[in-house]
Amino acid sequence: SKCNNEAFQLAQVHGQMETYAGIIGNEADPEDYRSVALHFEQSTSPNNHFLAGKFFLKARLYGSALRHLTASGGERDKGVIHHEAIELAIEVVGEAHDDQLTAHLIDYLMGDADGIPKDAKYLFRLYMALKQFKEAGRTAIIIAREEQINGNYRNAHDVLFSMYRELQRHGIKIPAEMSTNLMILHSYLLVKQHIKLNDHVRAARLLIRVGKNISKFPAHIVPILTSAVIECQKAELKDSAFGYASMLMREEYRPNIDPKYRKKLELLIRRRERGELEESAAPCPGCGHAELHTSELTCVDCRRQIPYCVVTGEHLVADDWCVCPECEFPARMGELVKYLSNGVGFDTCPMCAEKVDMNKLKRWTRDEVAAYFNTQSGTRGEN
Known about the structure:
The protein is mainly alpha-helical. The chain is built from 17 helices and six strands.
């Protein structure tokens, strides 16, 4: 309109283009946005690439938008890469549905364009925007692995959990690596809760599972193995305690042992006590035949992968199966009810951290459990 033209010219003369852009908001014509974008394209302001790209996006001129946003993403402001520009670049490609623009942004994120690989979370978000969920899943595994290596176990767990749910929603089979890594991380995060509940047997069994995968926790190998020794002793798992104490005496671990535990560990090895509390067992919920130790998640008879309870980390049983009403991850119903009503302050699902309404919990029938195993290979992968 004529008024818009006059306002645009005034903004141009007085250097108030960002104010003008804010006034026209999201209801202007594409041509108005194009005029604003062209102004910033010719500007020498510090954020000219970002602002030009932002308004070329609003004008639906996707090629120009991406060109400026990737240029802005490489600029540094006080040492911080302009991440908002990369987020907008992902939005551009998501709207454009243009293979050439997608390839350009992937090259940029991988560092092919400027020699600076960007954080993998951006590649993950790009694949999500493009609804390329399998690629997003592979990227999520990489991101979670990096978080786990750095000792950020809750972050790694949440990345895998979110992607797991996304793949489920779209009926895509869960990659075995994603499922296994989530199980190991979840087992680790459950340990503290069971110690708080004074359930040292379950805490020890979970730490044994983690200990078998200790290479996945490089930032905290010694503290985790030390905790395994302590909990195994409390749980009367003397052979396991000795095994982990011996592992801690290796040359690569011994110097990092907390001094307050060193003498106790050395004494435990010198005066070894033998014996191992027998682990409880329960039938495979898939075939009902094999009696499996509760920590085992693969049936030796039918070879099925058995889902684990989000509360205990133990395999599920057919006559006590339910799911969290918020995230639909399975649990032993008796254990979930006990966990939520123990008075220690646990009122959320251990997997999704959402508050659980116990009135919504429903014990599955045997037919529902059987139906789960019949369809398991279609979407859930291995647990």
